[in-house]
Fold this sequence. Notes:
With 520 residues, this protein is of the alpha/beta class. It has 3 domains: 2-179, Ferritin (Up-down Bundle); 187-448, 3-Layer(aba) Sandwich (Rossmann fold), CATH 3.40.50.150; 482-520. It is 43% helix and 12% strand. The protein contains 17 helices and 11 strands. It has helices spanning 2-17, 22-53, 67-73, 78-81, 94-99, 106-120, 141-149, 158-180, 191-201, 217-228, 245-256, 318-327, 351-360, 418-432, 456-461, 469-472, 484-515, and strands spanning 206-210, 236-240, 262-263, 282-287, 329-340, 364-369, 382-388, 396-401, 406-408, 414-416, 451-455. A 9-stranded mixed beta sheet has the order 3-2-1-4-5-7-6-8-11. Helix 9 packs across helix 10 (217-228) and helix 9 (191-201) runs parallel beside helix 14. The radius of gyration is 29 Å and the shape is globular.
Amino acid sequence: MLDDIKKTLWATADKLRANMDAAEYKHLVLGLIFLKYVSDTFTARRAEIEARLQDPADEFYFADATPEDLAAELEDRDYYKSANVFWVPEGARWETIRSMAKNVEIGKFIDNALTLIEGENPKLKGILDKRYARAQLPDGKLGELVDLISTIGFGENAAQARDVLGQVYEYFLGMFASAEGKRGGQFYTPASIVKTLVAVLAPHHGKVYDPCCGSGGMFVQSEKFIEAHGGKLGDVSIYGQEANPTTWRLAAMNLAIRGIDFNLGREPADTFTRNQHPDLRADYILANPPFNISDWWHGSLEGDPRWQYGDPPQGNANYAWLQHMLYHLKDTGRAGIVLANGSMSSSQNNEGVIRAAMVEADVVEVMVALPGQLFFNTQIPACLWFLAKRKKRKGEVLFIDARKLGRMISRVQAELDDAAIQRIADTVAAWRGEVEQGATVTEYQDQPGFCRSVPLAEIAQHGHVLTPGRYVGAEEVEDDDEAFDEKMRKLTEKLGEQMAKGAELDALIRAKLGGLGYEF
Length: 520
Protein backbone atom coordinates (compact mmCIF):
# COMPACT_ATOMS: atom_id res chain seq x y z
CA MET A 1 0.00 0.00 0.00
CA LEU A 2 2.73 2.44 0.99
CA ASP A 3 4.72 1.56 -2.15
CA ASP A 4 1.69 2.41 -4.27
CA ILE A 5 1.33 5.77 -2.51
CA LYS A 6 5.01 6.59 -3.09
CA LYS A 7 4.98 5.62 -6.77
CA THR A 8 1.72 7.49 -7.45
CA LEU A 9 3.03 10.57 -5.69
CA TRP A 10 6.27 10.53 -7.65
CA ALA A 11 4.59 9.94 -11.02
CA THR A 12 2.10 12.75 -10.43
CA ALA A 13 4.66 15.11 -8.96
CA ASP A 14 7.02 14.46 -11.85
CA LYS A 15 4.21 15.23 -14.30
CA LEU A 16 3.37 18.47 -12.47
CA ARG A 17 7.01 19.47 -12.47
CA ALA A 18 6.86 20.36 -16.17
CA ASN A 19 10.03 22.28 -17.04
CA MET A 20 11.15 23.13 -13.49
CA ASP A 21 14.60 21.91 -12.42
CA ALA A 22 14.46 18.92 -10.05
CA ALA A 23 16.75 20.71 -7.57
CA GLU A 24 14.18 23.51 -7.25
CA TYR A 25 11.05 21.38 -7.34
CA LYS A 26 12.44 19.04 -4.68
CA HIS A 27 12.12 21.73 -2.02
CA LEU A 28 8.54 22.57 -2.98
CA VAL A 29 7.44 18.94 -2.70
CA LEU A 30 9.34 18.09 0.49
CA GLY A 31 8.26 21.35 2.16
CA LEU A 32 4.60 20.56 1.51
CA ILE A 33 5.03 16.96 2.71
CA PHE A 34 6.54 18.41 5.90
CA LEU A 35 3.56 20.77 6.34
CA LYS A 36 1.07 17.95 5.80
CA TYR A 37 2.86 15.74 8.29
CA VAL A 38 3.10 18.28 11.12
CA SER A 39 -0.55 19.21 10.60
CA ASP A 40 -1.75 15.59 10.57
CA THR A 41 0.18 14.64 13.70
CA PHE A 42 -1.05 17.79 15.46
CA THR A 43 -4.66 17.03 14.54
CA ALA A 44 -4.33 13.40 15.67
CA ARG A 45 -2.79 14.47 19.00
CA ARG A 46 -5.50 17.10 19.50
CA ALA A 47 -8.26 14.50 18.96
CA GLU A 48 -6.52 12.14 21.40
CA ILE A 49 -6.24 14.82 24.10
CA GLU A 50 -9.85 15.90 23.60
CA ALA A 51 -11.04 12.33 24.12
CA ARG A 52 -8.89 11.89 27.22
CA LEU A 53 -10.08 15.17 28.76
CA GLN A 54 -13.62 13.82 28.61
CA ASP A 55 -12.84 10.29 29.87
CA PRO A 56 -13.45 9.96 33.64
CA ALA A 57 -11.04 7.02 33.80
CA ASP A 58 -8.16 9.01 32.28
CA GLU A 59 -5.55 11.01 34.20
CA PHE A 60 -6.26 14.00 31.92
CA TYR A 61 -10.00 14.04 32.78
CA PHE A 62 -11.31 17.59 33.02
CA ALA A 63 -14.36 17.32 35.30
CA ASP A 64 -17.34 19.64 34.71
CA ALA A 65 -15.56 21.36 31.83
CA THR A 66 -17.66 23.56 29.53
CA PRO A 67 -17.03 23.47 25.75
CA GLU A 68 -15.18 26.76 26.16
CA ASP A 69 -13.02 25.27 28.93
CA LEU A 70 -12.18 22.28 26.74
CA ALA A 71 -11.29 24.48 23.77
CA ALA A 72 -8.97 26.57 25.96
CA GLU A 73 -7.37 23.47 27.50
CA LEU A 74 -6.65 22.06 24.03
CA GLU A 75 -4.51 25.13 23.35
CA ASP A 76 -2.01 24.11 26.05
CA ARG A 77 1.29 23.55 24.16
CA ASP A 78 2.59 21.11 26.78
CA TYR A 79 0.17 18.40 25.67
CA TYR A 80 1.85 18.42 22.26
CA LYS A 81 5.48 18.98 23.22
CA SER A 82 5.36 16.10 25.71
CA ALA A 83 4.44 13.76 22.82
CA ASN A 84 7.11 15.22 20.52
CA VAL A 85 4.43 16.81 18.32
CA PHE A 86 4.82 20.25 16.72
CA TRP A 87 2.35 22.91 17.76
CA VAL A 88 0.62 24.08 14.56
CA PRO A 89 -1.21 27.45 14.62
CA GLU A 90 -4.65 27.50 13.02
CA GLY A 91 -3.45 29.45 9.97
CA ALA A 92 -0.86 26.74 9.20
CA ARG A 93 -3.12 23.69 9.49
CA TRP A 94 -3.53 21.61 6.36
CA GLU A 95 -7.28 21.98 6.07
CA THR A 96 -6.80 25.76 5.95
CA ILE A 97 -4.04 25.47 3.33
CA ARG A 98 -6.10 23.09 1.21
CA SER A 99 -9.07 25.43 1.26
CA MET A 100 -6.79 28.04 -0.35
CA ALA A 101 -5.38 25.70 -3.02
CA LYS A 102 -7.18 27.41 -5.92
CA ASN A 103 -6.38 30.92 -4.70
CA VAL A 104 -3.82 32.84 -6.81
CA GLU A 105 -2.11 33.83 -3.54
CA ILE A 106 -1.56 30.19 -2.42
CA GLY A 107 2.25 30.61 -2.56
CA LYS A 108 2.21 33.54 -0.12
CA PHE A 109 -0.21 31.65 2.10
CA ILE A 110 2.12 28.63 2.33
CA ASP A 111 5.12 30.85 3.09
CA ASN A 112 3.12 32.49 5.87
CA ALA A 113 2.12 29.07 7.27
CA LEU A 114 5.81 28.07 7.46
CA THR A 115 6.63 31.35 9.21
CA LEU A 116 3.87 30.68 11.80
CA ILE A 117 5.25 27.17 12.49
CA GLU A 118 8.78 28.54 12.91
CA GLY A 119 7.46 31.12 15.38
CA GLU A 120 5.89 28.40 17.52
CA ASN A 121 8.79 25.94 17.29
CA PRO A 122 12.16 27.67 17.96
CA LYS A 123 14.16 24.61 16.84
CA LEU A 124 12.94 25.28 13.29
CA LYS A 125 13.73 29.00 13.23
CA GLY A 126 15.42 29.91 9.95
CA ILE A 127 15.17 26.30 8.78
CA LEU A 128 11.98 26.09 6.71
CA ASP A 129 12.44 27.09 3.09
CA LYS A 130 9.89 29.80 2.26
CA ARG A 131 10.08 29.93 -1.54
CA TYR A 132 6.49 29.22 -2.61
CA ALA A 133 5.43 32.80 -3.47
CA ARG A 134 8.30 33.10 -5.96
CA ALA A 135 8.13 29.54 -7.33
CA GLN A 136 8.27 29.42 -11.13
CA LEU A 137 5.29 27.09 -11.59
CA PRO A 138 2.58 27.60 -14.22
CA ASP A 139 -0.71 29.01 -12.91
CA GLY A 140 -2.64 26.48 -10.88
CA LYS A 141 0.18 23.96 -10.58
CA LEU A 142 1.00 24.78 -6.95
CA GLY A 143 -2.66 24.27 -6.06
CA GLU A 144 -2.58 20.92 -7.87
CA LEU A 145 0.49 19.97 -5.85
CA VAL A 146 -1.36 20.85 -2.62
CA ASP A 147 -4.26 18.61 -3.71
CA LEU A 148 -1.80 15.84 -4.51
CA ILE A 149 -0.07 16.00 -1.12
CA SER A 150 -3.53 15.91 0.48
CA THR A 151 -3.83 12.27 -0.64
CA ILE A 152 -1.05 11.18 1.74
CA GLY A 153 -2.50 9.71 4.91
CA PHE A 154 -0.14 9.65 7.88
CA GLY A 155 -2.09 7.29 10.11
CA GLU A 156 -3.85 7.85 13.38
CA ASN A 157 -0.96 8.05 15.85
CA ALA A 158 2.32 9.95 15.94
CA ALA A 159 4.58 6.87 15.78
CA GLN A 160 2.82 5.45 12.72
CA ALA A 161 2.71 8.89 11.06
CA ARG A 162 6.43 9.40 11.61
CA ASP A 163 7.23 6.03 10.05
CA VAL A 164 5.04 6.63 6.97
CA LEU A 165 6.38 10.16 6.55
CA GLY A 166 9.97 9.01 6.93
CA GLN A 167 9.57 6.39 4.22
CA VAL A 168 7.85 8.82 1.83
CA TYR A 169 10.54 11.41 2.54
CA GLU A 170 13.41 8.97 1.93
CA TYR A 171 11.75 7.76 -1.26
CA PHE A 172 11.42 11.30 -2.61
CA LEU A 173 15.01 12.17 -1.67
CA GLY A 174 16.22 9.09 -3.52
CA MET A 175 14.10 9.79 -6.60
CA PHE A 176 15.22 13.42 -6.68
CA ALA A 177 18.84 12.30 -6.36
CA SER A 178 18.35 10.15 -9.45
CA ALA A 179 16.57 12.96 -11.33
CA GLU A 180 19.19 15.55 -10.42
CA GLY A 181 22.07 13.49 -11.74
CA LYS A 182 25.52 14.62 -10.64
CA ARG A 183 24.34 17.23 -8.13
CA GLY A 184 22.23 14.70 -6.27
CA GLY A 185 25.33 13.35 -4.53
CA GLN A 186 25.55 16.61 -2.63
CA PHE A 187 22.76 15.47 -0.37
CA TYR A 188 21.94 11.78 -0.77
CA THR A 189 23.84 8.61 0.13
CA PRO A 190 22.19 5.34 -1.00
CA ALA A 191 20.49 3.56 1.88
CA SER A 192 22.51 0.34 1.58
CA ILE A 193 25.81 2.22 2.10
CA VAL A 194 24.42 4.06 5.12
CA LYS A 195 23.10 0.80 6.58
CA THR A 196 26.52 -0.83 6.12
CA LEU A 197 28.32 2.00 7.91
CA VAL A 198 25.83 1.94 10.78
CA ALA A 199 25.82 -1.86 11.07
CA VAL A 200 29.63 -1.99 11.34
CA LEU A 201 29.94 0.97 13.72
CA ALA A 202 26.98 -0.15 15.89
CA PRO A 203 26.26 3.26 17.50
CA HIS A 204 24.33 2.38 20.66
CA HIS A 205 24.73 5.60 22.64
CA GLY A 206 26.76 8.79 22.90
CA LYS A 207 27.61 11.53 20.43
CA VAL A 208 27.16 10.85 16.69
CA TYR A 209 28.77 13.28 14.24
CA ASP A 210 28.66 13.78 10.48
CA PRO A 211 30.77 16.72 9.23
CA CYS A 212 29.13 16.69 5.77
CA CYS A 213 25.68 15.49 6.72
CA GLY A 214 23.68 16.16 3.55
CA SER A 215 20.02 15.41 4.25
CA GLY A 216 20.78 13.62 7.54
CA GLY A 217 20.45 10.03 6.35
CA MET A 218 23.31 8.79 8.55
CA PHE A 219 21.56 10.10 11.67
CA VAL A 220 18.18 8.62 10.76
CA GLN A 221 19.71 5.19 10.16
CA SER A 222 21.64 5.42 13.45
CA GLU A 223 18.40 6.04 15.33
CA LYS A 224 16.75 3.09 13.54
CA PHE A 225 19.68 0.86 14.53
CA ILE A 226 19.43 1.92 18.18
CA GLU A 227 15.68 1.28 18.32
CA ALA A 228 16.11 -2.10 16.59
CA HIS A 229 18.63 -3.11 19.28
CA GLY A 230 16.42 -2.24 22.24
CA GLY A 231 17.54 1.35 22.77
CA LYS A 232 15.36 4.42 22.59
CA LEU A 233 15.17 7.68 20.69
CA GLY A 234 17.53 10.10 22.38
CA ASP A 235 20.20 7.58 23.43
CA VAL A 236 22.48 9.45 21.05
CA SER A 237 23.21 13.16 20.62
CA ILE A 238 23.28 14.29 16.99
CA TYR A 239 25.91 16.74 15.68
CA GLY A 240 26.21 17.66 12.04
CA GLN A 241 27.49 20.24 9.60
CA GLU A 242 26.56 21.03 6.00
CA ALA A 243 27.80 23.77 3.69
CA ASN A 244 24.89 23.88 1.22
CA PRO A 245 22.14 26.10 2.74
CA THR A 246 19.20 24.30 1.12
CA THR A 247 20.58 20.87 2.00
CA TRP A 248 21.23 22.07 5.57
CA ARG A 249 17.53 22.93 5.81
CA LEU A 250 16.58 19.55 4.36
CA ALA A 251 18.63 17.81 7.04
CA ALA A 252 16.95 19.79 9.82
CA MET A 253 13.49 18.99 8.44
CA ASN A 254 14.39 15.33 7.94
CA LEU A 255 15.47 15.06 11.59
CA ALA A 256 12.64 17.23 12.96
CA ILE A 257 9.89 15.13 11.40
CA ARG A 258 11.27 12.08 13.20
CA GLY A 259 11.49 13.81 16.54
CA ILE A 260 15.29 13.52 16.60
CA ASP A 261 17.03 16.25 18.58
CA PHE A 262 19.97 17.71 16.69
CA ASN A 263 22.68 20.35 16.54
CA LEU A 264 23.63 21.25 12.96
CA GLY A 265 25.61 24.31 14.00
CA ARG A 266 24.53 27.94 13.96
CA GLU A 267 24.47 28.08 10.17
CA PRO A 268 25.38 26.23 6.99
CA ALA A 269 29.15 26.49 6.65
CA ASP A 270 32.29 24.93 5.18
CA THR A 271 33.57 22.23 7.56
CA PHE A 272 37.24 23.02 7.03
CA THR A 273 37.23 26.82 7.27
CA ARG A 274 34.19 27.39 9.53
CA ASN A 275 34.07 24.36 11.79
CA GLN A 276 30.75 24.54 13.69
CA HIS A 277 31.79 22.04 16.40
CA PRO A 278 35.47 22.78 17.11
CA ASP A 279 35.48 21.21 20.59
CA LEU A 280 33.41 18.13 19.78
CA ARG A 281 34.86 14.70 20.45
CA ALA A 282 32.42 12.12 19.11
CA ASP A 283 31.76 8.50 20.01
CA TYR A 284 30.80 7.71 16.41
CA ILE A 285 31.47 9.51 13.15
CA LEU A 286 29.68 8.53 9.94
CA ALA A 287 30.27 10.43 6.72
CA ASN A 288 30.09 10.41 2.95
CA PRO A 289 32.20 13.44 2.00
CA PRO A 290 32.18 14.59 -1.63
CA PHE A 291 34.77 12.56 -3.56
CA ASN A 292 38.10 14.06 -4.62
CA ILE A 293 37.11 17.74 -4.24
CA SER A 294 39.88 20.01 -5.51
CA ASP A 295 38.72 23.50 -4.44
CA TRP A 296 38.65 22.99 -0.68
CA TRP A 297 41.90 24.65 0.39
CA HIS A 298 42.18 28.06 2.07
CA GLY A 299 45.32 29.77 3.33
CA SER A 300 43.96 29.80 6.89
CA LEU A 301 44.27 25.99 6.99
CA GLU A 302 48.08 26.08 6.89
CA GLY A 303 49.42 24.35 10.03
CA ASP A 304 45.91 23.40 11.23
CA PRO A 305 46.05 21.10 14.31
CA ARG A 306 43.78 18.62 12.51
CA TRP A 307 46.62 17.64 10.15
CA GLN A 308 48.24 15.32 12.69
CA TYR A 309 49.48 12.81 10.11
CA GLY A 310 50.68 15.24 7.45
CA ASP A 311 49.54 18.21 5.38
CA PRO A 312 46.77 17.11 2.98
CA PRO A 313 47.29 18.07 -0.67
CA GLN A 314 45.59 21.29 -1.68
CA GLY A 315 44.18 19.65 -4.82
CA ASN A 316 42.29 16.79 -3.12
CA ALA A 317 40.37 16.85 0.19
CA ASN A 318 40.19 13.08 0.81
CA TYR A 319 42.96 13.04 3.42
CA ALA A 320 41.73 16.29 4.92
CA TRP A 321 38.39 14.58 5.61
CA LEU A 322 40.05 11.53 7.13
CA GLN A 323 42.20 13.63 9.45
CA HIS A 324 39.33 15.97 10.36
CA MET A 325 37.34 12.96 11.52
CA LEU A 326 40.20 11.46 13.50
CA TYR A 327 40.68 14.83 15.20
CA HIS A 328 37.03 14.89 16.29
CA LEU A 329 36.98 11.25 17.44
CA LYS A 330 37.08 10.32 21.12
CA ASP A 331 39.91 8.02 22.18
CA THR A 332 37.32 5.25 22.50
CA GLY A 333 35.37 6.28 19.38
CA ARG A 334 34.94 4.78 15.91
CA ALA A 335 34.55 6.39 12.50
CA GLY A 336 33.22 5.10 9.19
CA ILE A 337 33.83 7.08 5.98
CA VAL A 338 32.87 6.55 2.33
CA LEU A 339 35.65 7.58 -0.09
CA ALA A 340 36.66 7.01 -3.68
CA ASN A 341 38.81 3.90 -4.26
CA GLY A 342 41.79 6.04 -5.20
CA SER A 343 42.16 7.04 -1.54
CA MET A 344 43.38 3.50 -0.72
CA SER A 345 46.39 3.58 -3.00
CA SER A 346 47.18 7.13 -4.14
CA SER A 347 50.73 8.28 -3.47
CA GLN A 348 50.48 11.71 -5.07
CA ASN A 349 51.12 14.97 -3.23
CA ASN A 350 51.81 13.52 0.23
CA GLU A 351 48.75 11.21 0.31
CA GLY A 352 50.90 8.07 0.50
CA VAL A 353 52.92 9.60 3.35
CA ILE A 354 49.76 10.46 5.33
CA ARG A 355 48.28 7.01 4.75
CA ALA A 356 51.50 5.34 5.92
CA ALA A 357 51.51 7.50 9.06
CA MET A 358 47.89 6.57 9.82
CA VAL A 359 48.56 2.86 9.34
CA GLU A 360 51.70 2.94 11.49
CA ALA A 361 49.81 4.89 14.20
CA ASP A 362 47.36 1.95 14.16
CA VAL A 363 44.24 4.03 13.63
CA VAL A 364 43.04 2.20 10.50
CA GLU A 365 40.79 -0.64 11.66
CA VAL A 366 38.82 -2.05 8.69
CA MET A 367 38.85 -1.45 4.91
CA VAL A 368 35.90 -2.53 2.75
CA ALA A 369 35.87 -2.56 -1.07
CA LEU A 370 32.31 -1.90 -2.30
CA PRO A 371 30.50 -3.16 -5.42
CA GLY A 372 30.24 -0.79 -8.38
CA GLN A 373 27.13 1.18 -9.38
CA LEU A 374 25.87 1.80 -5.82
CA PHE A 375 25.45 5.54 -6.33
CA PHE A 376 22.73 7.31 -8.29
CA ASN A 377 25.06 9.82 -9.83
CA THR A 378 28.62 8.59 -10.19
CA GLN A 379 30.38 5.52 -11.54
CA ILE A 380 33.46 6.22 -9.37
CA PRO A 381 34.08 3.00 -7.38
CA ALA A 382 33.97 3.57 -3.64
CA CYS A 383 35.27 2.01 -0.44
CA LEU A 384 34.66 2.26 3.30
CA TRP A 385 37.32 3.31 5.80
CA PHE A 386 36.77 2.43 9.46
CA LEU A 387 39.04 4.23 11.91
CA ALA A 388 39.59 3.80 15.65
CA LYS A 389 42.16 5.19 18.09
CA ARG A 390 41.94 2.17 20.40
CA LYS A 391 41.46 -0.87 18.20
CA LYS A 392 40.31 -4.20 19.62
CA ARG A 393 42.99 -5.95 17.54
CA LYS A 394 46.11 -3.85 17.63
CA GLY A 395 48.71 -4.18 14.92
CA GLU A 396 46.30 -5.64 12.33
CA VAL A 397 43.88 -4.32 9.72
CA LEU A 398 40.83 -6.28 8.58
CA PHE A 399 40.35 -6.23 4.80
CA ILE A 400 36.95 -7.13 3.28
CA ASP A 401 36.34 -7.41 -0.45
CA ALA A 402 32.58 -6.97 -0.91
CA ARG A 403 32.71 -6.20 -4.63
CA LYS A 404 30.83 -9.39 -5.54
CA LEU A 405 28.04 -8.84 -3.00
CA GLY A 406 26.14 -6.23 -5.03
CA ARG A 407 22.67 -6.94 -6.39
CA MET A 408 21.31 -5.02 -9.38
CA ILE A 409 18.03 -3.24 -8.59
CA SER A 410 17.77 -1.47 -11.93
CA ARG A 411 19.62 -1.38 -15.23
CA VAL A 412 22.07 1.18 -13.86
CA GLN A 413 22.10 0.75 -10.09
CA ALA A 414 23.12 -1.91 -7.58
CA GLU A 415 22.71 -2.25 -3.82
CA LEU A 416 23.97 -4.32 -0.93
CA ASP A 417 21.00 -6.31 0.35
CA ASP A 418 20.37 -6.97 4.04
CA ALA A 419 22.07 -10.38 3.93
CA ALA A 420 25.26 -8.89 2.45
CA ILE A 421 25.27 -6.06 5.01
CA GLN A 422 24.76 -8.55 7.83
CA ARG A 423 27.64 -10.70 6.56
CA ILE A 424 30.01 -7.71 6.52
CA ALA A 425 28.90 -6.44 9.94
CA ASP A 426 29.04 -9.89 11.58
CA THR A 427 32.50 -10.54 10.11
CA VAL A 428 33.80 -7.28 11.62
CA ALA A 429 32.11 -7.99 14.97
CA ALA A 430 33.63 -11.49 15.11
CA TRP A 431 37.06 -10.06 14.25
CA ARG A 432 36.68 -7.53 17.07
CA GLY A 433 35.46 -10.22 19.46
CA GLU A 434 32.07 -8.51 19.83
CA VAL A 435 29.71 -11.21 18.55
CA GLU A 436 26.04 -10.61 19.36
CA GLN A 437 23.33 -13.23 19.74
CA GLY A 438 21.94 -14.39 16.40
CA ALA A 439 25.02 -13.34 14.40
CA THR A 440 25.68 -15.18 11.13
CA VAL A 441 29.43 -15.28 11.91
CA THR A 442 30.33 -16.37 15.44
CA GLU A 443 34.08 -16.88 15.16
CA TYR A 444 36.40 -14.95 12.88
CA GLN A 445 38.36 -16.79 10.21
CA ASP A 446 40.09 -15.49 7.10
CA GLN A 447 38.05 -16.32 3.97
CA PRO A 448 40.04 -16.29 0.73
CA GLY A 449 38.48 -13.89 -1.72
CA PHE A 450 36.40 -12.16 1.00
CA CYS A 451 38.27 -11.21 4.17
CA ARG A 452 41.69 -11.37 5.80
CA SER A 453 43.30 -9.89 8.90
CA VAL A 454 46.70 -8.51 7.93
CA PRO A 455 49.59 -7.42 10.20
CA LEU A 456 50.95 -3.91 9.76
CA ALA A 457 54.37 -5.23 8.70
CA GLU A 458 52.84 -6.92 5.64
CA ILE A 459 50.93 -3.72 4.76
CA ALA A 460 54.22 -1.82 4.94
CA GLN A 461 55.76 -4.31 2.48
CA HIS A 462 52.99 -3.32 0.04
CA GLY A 463 53.81 0.37 0.36
CA HIS A 464 50.89 0.93 2.75
CA VAL A 465 48.38 0.39 -0.04
CA LEU A 466 45.01 -0.49 1.54
CA THR A 467 43.14 -2.08 -1.37
CA PRO A 468 41.43 -5.25 0.00
CA GLY A 469 41.86 -7.19 -3.27
CA ARG A 470 45.63 -7.07 -2.74
CA TYR A 471 45.37 -8.96 0.57
CA VAL A 472 42.33 -11.26 0.60
CA GLY A 473 43.57 -13.47 -2.25
CA ALA A 474 41.47 -15.48 -4.69
CA GLU A 475 38.30 -17.28 -3.75
CA GLU A 476 38.86 -20.97 -3.07
CA VAL A 477 37.52 -23.27 -5.78
CA GLU A 478 35.71 -26.33 -4.48
CA ASP A 479 37.98 -29.37 -4.75
CA ASP A 480 36.26 -32.43 -6.27
CA ASP A 481 39.33 -34.68 -5.63
CA GLU A 482 39.72 -35.39 -9.37
CA ALA A 483 43.30 -35.50 -10.68
CA PHE A 484 44.25 -32.72 -13.10
CA ASP A 485 45.29 -35.16 -15.88
CA GLU A 486 41.96 -36.98 -15.71
CA LYS A 487 40.00 -33.72 -15.67
CA MET A 488 41.98 -32.44 -18.67
CA ARG A 489 41.37 -35.70 -20.61
CA LYS A 490 37.60 -35.42 -20.09
CA LEU A 491 37.51 -31.75 -21.07
CA THR A 492 39.55 -32.51 -24.24
CA GLU A 493 37.19 -35.34 -25.19
CA LYS A 494 34.16 -33.08 -24.67
CA LEU A 495 35.73 -30.33 -26.79
CA GLY A 496 36.44 -32.88 -29.58
CA GLU A 497 32.81 -34.06 -29.51
CA GLN A 498 31.51 -30.50 -29.73
CA MET A 499 33.86 -29.67 -32.62
CA ALA A 500 32.70 -32.79 -34.50
CA LYS A 501 29.06 -31.83 -34.02
CA GLY A 502 29.88 -28.33 -35.25
CA ALA A 503 31.45 -29.77 -38.43
CA GLU A 504 28.35 -31.93 -39.04
CA LEU A 505 26.06 -28.92 -38.66
CA ASP A 506 28.29 -26.88 -40.97
CA ALA A 507 28.10 -29.59 -43.66
CA LEU A 508 24.32 -29.85 -43.27
CA ILE A 509 23.83 -26.10 -43.64
CA ARG A 510 26.06 -26.02 -46.75
CA ALA A 511 24.06 -28.90 -48.31
CA LYS A 512 20.75 -27.16 -47.64
CA LEU A 513 21.96 -23.86 -49.05
CA GLY A 514 23.47 -25.68 -52.09
CA GLY A 515 20.04 -27.16 -52.80
CA LEU A 516 18.70 -23.61 -52.97
CA GLY A 517 21.24 -22.66 -55.62
CA TYR A 518 23.88 -21.03 -53.43
CA GLU A 519 27.52 -21.81 -54.21
CA PHE A 520 30.49 -21.83 -51.84
